[in-house]
Design brief:
The chain is mainly β. The protein contains two helices and 19 strands. The protein folds into two domains: 144 residues, Immunoglobulin-like (Sandwich); 171 residues, no CATH class. Strand 3 and strand 4 form a beta hairpin.
Length: 341
């Protein structure tokens, strides 16, 4: 019995090393693609049953802010007896850069945010089970990866190229499988609305982000209405939201009232989260840190939603992106009764 286990482990490691060398070779000889200017979502290949993940790269002037979201990760010891944690790596032309430890919750869900790897153009992203959080090179069994050289730079548009002021949701929600866009838009009485018979574009390719969110809501009868009430951090704050799901995306349009500046409650930013019925928490994006939060509709689009039966809450945080919300609740929808730990 012991012998057969050792043989299988040896074969797995040999296969992985061969695949890794092939990946590095393909990166070395592939010509770099033109830089991207919009968010890049890459599903990760899984080498463990029931584990899945996604790499999202948000635009920035340094080549992008990446975040790995993983679901259903098994105990590392099931992949290797000596393994204690998961580590995320970037690999390019035979070089490895440790991006950090991917910590998981009791459900096996976790995330890691990072800046574009310095000195790398295209790169392969790997998640491995390791003995410690700070190995010099990957030595454990792989659990998730991109294809060879699939990750690439994503640059932000110059200020004069942007259609409207926006707040990017650069972070990862524990249990979340998607990534988000959020933006503020002052509402006027003559806003053009998409006809209810016309579905919104799936990825907003070259389209109007606001019209996409409005179109998704209109297509579903205006969306499900949520009432947000002030919690212990901002008890006088209020909010009204319309939410729906369409083609794998969750859409939110929300208006707040009475939300004080983050600095007045000892925070730097407010962050909005969603709770889905199975208890998973999804990062939905940060809110404007100015008074505009009370005078504009906030539009949000997040991938990874199959139904609109999610609730919302807002926390006061010191920084973003975040993996899990703090217990500093600013607002909550009425149906949320659980305590976030």
């Amino acid at each position: 019995m012991t012998k057969s286990v050792r043989v299988r482990c040896g074969a797995r490691r040999a296969w992985w090393l061969f695949a890794l060398m092939s990946a590095c070779a393909s990166v070395a000889f592939a010509s770099p693609p033109p830089p991207q200017t919009k968010r890049l979502d890459i599903p990760l290949r899984s080498f463990a049953p029931r584990a899945s993940g996604r790499l999202t790269i948000e635009p920035s002037d340094r080549g992008g802010r990446g975040r790995v979201t993983a679901l259903g990760l098994p105990d590392p010891q099931t992949l290797s007896r000596a393994a204690r944690t998961y580590v995320v790596w970037a690999s390019s032309e035979g070089r490895f850069l440790r991006l950090g430890e991917l910590q998981r919750d009791e459900r096996g869900n976790g995330g890691l945010a990072f800046n574009h790897p310095a000195g790398f153009e295209r790169y392969t992203l790997l998640v491995t089970a390791e003995m410690s959080a700070e190995p010099e090179r990957p030595a454990g069994a792989p659990v998730l990866s991109t294809r060879a050289g699939e990750a690439q730079p994503v640059y932000a548009l110059a200020a004069d190229e942007r259609r409207a002021p926006s707040t990017s949701s650069g972070g990862s929600g524990v249990g979340g499988s998607g990534s988000g866009d959020s933006a503020t838009r002052p509402r006027t009485t003559d806003d053009a609305r998409r006809p209810t018979s016309m579905p919104p574009p799936s990825n907003n390719a070259g389209g109007d982000f606001y019209a996409e969110v409005d179109g998704a809501l209109d297509t579903h009868g205006g969306g499900r209405a949520l009432q947000l009430e002030g919690d212990r951090v901002t008890p006088r704050a209020r909010g009204r939201a319309r939410v729906t799901a369409y083609a794998g995306n969750g859409y939110v349009r929300v208006r707040f009232r009475g939300v004080p500046l983050p600095s007045t409650v000892g925070a730097n930013v407010y962050v909005m989260w969603a709770v889905v019925p199975d208890g998973r928490i999804v990062y939905m994006g940060s809110l404007p840190a100015t008074r505009v939060v009370n005078f504009a509709d906030i539009y949000v689009r997040v991938a990874g939603f199959d139904a609109d039966d999610f609730e919302l809450f807002v926390t006061a945080e010191m920084s973003r992106p975040l993996f899990t919300p703090s217990d500093r609740r600013a607002l909550s929808t009425r149906r949320i009764r659980s305590t976030v730990k």
